[in-house]
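Service request form, structural biology core

Requester: graduate student, group of Dr. S.
Request type: structure prediction, single chain
Budget code: on file
Notes: please return the result as structure tokens.

Sequence provided:
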Amino acid sequence: MHDAPAQFMVRARDLSKVYTVGSSKVAALNRVHLDIPAGSFTAIVGTSGSGKSTLLNLLGGLEAPTAGQVSVAGHPLHRYSESKLVTFRRNNVGFIFQSFNLLPQLTALQNVALPLSFRGISRPRRERRARQVLHQLGLAQHASHKPAQLSGGQQQRVGIARALVANPKIVFADEPTGNLDSRTAEETLQLFRAVNRSLKQTWIMVTHDRHLASFADTIVAISDGRIAEISHNQLSTSLEVSPPCED
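Core staff response, request fulfilled:
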């Protein structure tokens, strides 16, 4: 497969993943074809065990496919070694997790700046960029707070800031609202929309919640390791969103 054209951030062809469990083989993904335009917001929806998180892991370079081809931001990930995948992720991808994955001993500022330390960026530059992103997400006054001093919604916003701090080309979110109440979950998705629109980054989110998926431009429904349906969501284009104010 050739590198992804400029209009597509992601192209997958015949993408498959088989896991070995004991003496058995389990097909988590089966010959998936998928194109995701650059700058779009896509939700991958399915029940537990449908293959949605496996698909996200393959698109994000966290796992290698058993078969098939996947190109992300012009990178043929199916050809990459593990070390090359690490470099790809560091330079191109931001991840947002359900469990926030914040280091409890670090402040919000330090957690957000952490990805930049892996790039060899000086501490003053790291902290300046981290403060900028925290401010954009309405968390400037919480920069010195540790995770235990923040609400669930604030912790998730710190996680979002950490994903954005290196200005990635693409952001992956795996069940990002799973530990949030329904109101905070909706506020988080409104924030996703605002950031996606303002920064023109490509966002891909995995969720089991059809309502939350309605915030995305495109909904990809997956079942038994196959794409069952792709729909384009008119509602998402009419949503009024804006960056959050300071808490």
